[in-house]
Amino acid sequence: MLGVAEYLVGTGRVTGWKRGFSVHVVGPEAGVINGPLGSSVVAHKHLSEVGRCDVVVVPAMLWDSDGYRPGLSPETVTWLMDQYEDGAILCGACTGPLLIAETGLLDGEEATVHWAYIDQVRRYFPKVKLRAEQVFVAGGTDKRLITTGGSGSWHDLVLYLIAKYAGPAAARSASSWFMVDWHQDGQSPYAEFVPSRDHGDALISNAQIWLDRHYRDAQQVNQLAERFAISDRSFKRRFRSATGYSPLQYLQALRVERAKRLLETTAHSVDDISHTVGYENPAFFRRLFKRVVGITPAAYRKRFQVPAYARNALSASTKAPGDL
User: Fold this and answer.
1) What is the distance between the alpha carbons of residues 280 and 248, in angstroms, rounded to a whole number?
2) Are β-strands 40-43 and 31-34 bridged in parallel, bridged antiparallel, or unpaired?
3) How many CA atoms, within 13 angstroms, populate the side-chain half-sphere of residue 23?
4) Coil, strand, or helix at residue 216?
5) Which of 15, 102, 144, 294 could lock onto 188 through a cystine, CB 3.0 to 4.6 A?
6) How far is Cα 246 from Cα 237, in angstroms, rounded to an integer?
7) C-alpha to C-alpha distance for 290 and 296, rounded to whole angstroms
């Protein structure tokens, strides 16, 4: 995409910008770097071979089966700090902000990350002012710390860089060329509710399992503490400590997540879905859904339901789903 911005200038479609982007892939080792899932990338140069950069982009990164943990690439972290000290803009896309956070530069600054790694930022980098609902955050006093959310928000980052150096017209042309858009609703519509189950509190784990099965029944939910033979105050304290949510917040998130699946896969009305997930008042459900997801149920359905052209192709397919 950065290369196409320069191409668009060359064709005369974008005027007033002649510098172009010179893009290099660099890393703690030069040559082919194999990833944990069988993918690979070619690093053009070793970090030590690179002088001052205008922009450094830390892309989405995959770690081993143990997941992310600080200290996996100290040489890269030091190099990032040096580049920032020399005036570079540091950009982290998807999981890339985790590596930037290791520099300490994000302490006290606003930042975002892929929604699935929110808990890891909170655990390892509690000084970061996390804006998890945002898809793009420009932090630092001079806005040289750019972080973006899930992988698709790479589009927002690259369009921003094109707009910054080539102008809004070039960004619009690149957007049209690649048929990509800015994610103006943030990343909340894309986030899934995946509550922690490895917190070590067996009583709360059992409560979570019970809620998975009975989330529709408000009356029984209100009697959870009694069901598990614990005081209401103690139950609420342990539940928040284990999951990060109050029981009510957890229940609401669970119901909204079930509603999202129904909006994606059925033609049921929003009112019917509201009743199905446990809300007798559809107006309240709509308000709750928008507060949690960031968009209305109707807008969510329009964005995430399998479109008609794909449904028609699927219905004509001779293979069953999952048989590819």
Assistant:
1) 16
2) antiparallel
3) 14
4) coil
5) 294
6) 8
7) 5
Burial class (CB in 10 A: 0-12, 13-18, 19+), 34: exposed
Backbone angles phi, psi at 43, to 5 degrees: -85, 120
Would you put residue 113 in left (φ > 0), alpha (ψ -120 to 50) or beta?
beta
The beta strand positions in the chain, using DSSP E, are: 26-27, 31-34, 40-43, 45-46, 55-58, 89-92, 110-111, 129-130, 136-139, 145-148
Q: Which tokens belong to 248?
A: 């009510």
Token pair 């040559």: residue:
31
Q: What is the pTM of this model?
A: 0.76
> Strand 31-34 relative to strand 129-130: parallel, antiparallel, unpaired?
unpaired
Encode the chain (324 residues) as per-residue pLDDT tens digits.
Answer: 887 766 777 776 666 666 678 888 998 888 887 766 677 888 889 999 999 999 999 988 766 556 678 888 899 999 999 999 999 999 999 889 999 999 999 999 999 999 888 888 998 999 999 998 888 999 988 999 999 988 788 888 998 998 888 778 778 888 888 888 888 888 888 888 888 888 889 999 999 999 988 888 877 777 888 888 889 899 999 999 999 899 989 999 999 999 999 999 889 999 999 999 999 999 999 999 999 999 999 999 998 888 887 877 877 765 555 544
Sign for the CA dihedral angle at 302, 304, 305, 310 comes to: positive
Compute the distance between CA of residue 66 and CA of residue 13 in angstroms, rounded to an integer. Answer: 48
Q: What is the largest CA-CA distance in the chain?
A: 73
Q: How many other CB atoms sit within 10 Å of the CB of residue 75?
A: 13
Confirm if 166 and 15 have CB atoms less than 8 A apart.
no
User: Could you tell me the two tokens for 197?
Assistant: 């189950």
- For 22, the token pair is 């010179």
Tallying the residues shown for the chain, one arrives at 324
